[in-house]
């Protein structure tokens, strides 16, 4: 199994091969290299997190003539993305930020 095939299996969605290859390249992996769990699980999951963001930014509904495709489960995918990022200690730009104020109170 190649890194590309592993990412396709984890994603379980149809995306262009170029999109998947770019995600792997950005995570530092060769798409055609053999997938070795011990070495490649982290970069493949980081690529998966990036692809989830790509999917979430795509149109939610596409309609052409009598054919329509609608995405409903973005919230679940974004939770999976957040879990992956936390697992590897990476920042999650979509996570709610805590309000903090530094400085002296004027009262």
Give an overview in words.
The chain is mainly α. It has one domain. The protein is 50% helix and 7% strand. A two-stranded antiparallel sheet has the order 1-2. Strand 1 and strand 2 form a beta hairpin. The model has no long low-confidence stretch (mean pLDDT 83).
Distance between the termini: 64 Å
The radius of gyration over CA amounts to 18 Å
Query: How confident overall, as mean pLDDT?
Result: 83
Strand content is: 5-15%
The structural domain count equals 1
* N-to-C series of helices and strands: HHHEEH
Largest sheet: 2 strands, antiparallel
Helix content: 40-55%
The total beta strand count reads: 2
DSSP helical segment count: 4
Protein traits:
about 110 residues, mainly alpha
What is the element layout, followed by pairings?
Elements: H1 3-11, H2 17-26, H3 37-56, E1 61-64, E2 67-70, H4 74-87
Antiparallel strand pairs: 1-2
Helix pairs in contact: 1-2, 1-3, 2-3, 3-4
Provide a concise account of the structure shown:
This protein has 107 residues and is mainly α. The chain has helices at residues 3-11, 17-26, 37-56, 74-87, and strands spanning 61-64, 67-70. Helix 1 (3-11) packs across helix 2 (17-26), helix 2 crosses helix 3 (37-56) and helix 3 (37-56) packs antiparallel against helix 4 (74-87).
């Amino acid at each position: 199994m190649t890194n590309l095939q592993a990412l396709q299996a984890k994603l379980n969605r149809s995306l262009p091969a170029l999109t998947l290859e770019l995600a792997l390249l950005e995570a530092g992996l060769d798409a055609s290299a053999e997938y070795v769990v011990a070495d490649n699980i982290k970069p493949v999951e980081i690529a998966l997190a990036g692809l989830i963001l790509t999917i979430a930014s795509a149109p939610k509904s596409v309609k052409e003539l009598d054919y329509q495709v609608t995405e409903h489960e973005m919230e679940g995918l974004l939770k999976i993305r957040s879990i992956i990022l936390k697992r590897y200690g990476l920042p999650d730009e979509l996570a709610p930020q805590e309000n903090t104020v530094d400085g002296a109170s004027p009262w």
